[in-house]
Specification:
Layout (H helix, E strand, L loop, with lengths): L1 E7 L2 E7 L3 E5 L2 E5 L12 E2 L8 H8 L14
Length: 76
Amino acid sequence: GYVYAPEFAGRKNIFGGHAWCQAWIGGQWIGLDATRAPDGYSAVHITLLAGSGNPEDFFDMVNTLNSFQITEIKQE
């Protein structure tokens, strides 16, 4: 998927390709992302594909990366 970063590699306010995991806890799937500590998984994660960890899952996701656009919507 994508994850928002306020700053990465000298660029500000970007979404970058990213992967995280989920665990079945207490009867629901919980997103876990150690790279986003201390917040972990949150609304800044955009899921494009869920897989089982097989390499084919990754290649299926790569094919979708350039086929959509993120648009900011402001509520007035």
